[in-house]
Each structure stands twice: as C-alpha cells, then as structure tokens.
Amino acid sequence: MQDYDQKVNDLMLDIFDKILVTEEKALSKGYFKDLSVAEMHTLESIGLYDTKTMSETAAALGVTTGTLTVAVDRLVRKGYVKRHRDEHDRRVVRVQLTRQGKLAYRMHHKFHTLLVDRLVEPLDGAQRELFLNTLQSISDFVNEQSRKYNELDKEHKS
Questions:
Q1: Are 128 and 120 in contact (CB under 8 A)?
Q2: pTM of the entire structure?
Q3: How far apart are CA 41 and CA 112, in angstroms?
Q4: Structural domain boundaries in the chain
Q5: Which ranges of 30-64 does DSSP label H, i.e. alpha helix?
C-alpha cells in the first residue's frame, strides 16, 4: 500500500475506533450507563415520535426480527421502549420509545450534534462542501459493500 493510501487507511480506522470508544465512554459515564451503544442505536432507529413495526426497525438496523426481539426485550425491561400490537392487524408488533427512551435519544443526539459542530466549525463553505462530498462517497461505498454482503448471506442461506 502506498504511503498516502496507508495514511488514509490508518486515519479511517482510528476515527471509526475512537468514535465507538467515545460513544461507549459517554454512555458509561452518563445518566444512561445501563445502555450499550447497540441499544442506543436501536433507540435511534425506533425514533422519537412515531411507532414503528418490529420488521421496519429490524430492516433499518440490518438485523433479523429475532435479533431485534432480544434487544427490544432488554430495552422494555430497562424502561426505554414499550411494545404493543397494531390496532388493525394484531399480528403486527409496534414499538415506541418511553419518556425515558426519548430522553436517552435526545442526549445521544446531542452528542452527535456536538461532534458534527466541532468537525465543521473551522471549515469555510468550499471546505464544507468538499467534506460533505467526501463523506457521501464513503457512505455510498460502505452501503454498496453492505448490500453485496447481505446478498451473499441470502444466497448462502438458500
């Protein structure tokens, strides 16, 4: 790997690692120390206002409904999520955040807002646009790879 490519690779790995570790530390030191990063991301996927079906939430997280059920069971026990049957179709299970879940969501959202503000604050307009385009390219690539691996998983299960 060329020197430039190695530096990019090292920086990306370091950033990814540090964001995850920082999120974990922020959770463990704060009011919501009983939540893991994965549980917090589940709360984010459920969202603040609307109820979502278990299937919608599982698809958004890229997990099976069985995996989500285990996570939601824990979040219900901890008081962050409530679950109920759909009024029109009793087979459908809906989830929504409790008051405590909404508070955790807002606190975590504030963490991300501060991170973004700190990243873009020193950038001028052209630099912000370049930064956004670069992040979009990274996101597109990662999403493309994720889709490929999901398709491979489906093929292997068939």
A1: yes
A2: 0.77
A3: 12
A4: 3-122, 125-158
A5: 37-46, 54-61
What are the phi and psi torsion angles at 96 (to 5°)?
-150, 160
pLDDT band at 158 (very low <50, low <70, confident <90, very high): low
**39 exposure class (CB count in 10 Å sphere: 0-12, 13-18, 19+):** buried
DSSP one-letter code for 95? E
CA angle, residues 40, 43, 45, in degrees to nearest 5: 110
Instruction: Specify the fold of 3-122.
Output: Arc Repressor Mutant, subunit A (1.10.10)
Amino acid found at 149? Y
Contacts 24+ apart (CB under 8 A), 40-45: 40/104, 40/108, 42/68, 42/71, 42/72, 42/75, 42/81, 43/75, 43/80, 43/81, 43/97, 43/101, 43/104, 43/105, 43/108, 44/105, 44/108, 44/109
HSE-up of residue 67 (Cα within 13 Å, Cβ side):
11
> For the segment 10-63, what is each residue's pLDDT rounded down to a tens digit?
999 999 899 888 888 887 787 888 999 899 999 999 999 889 999 999 998 988
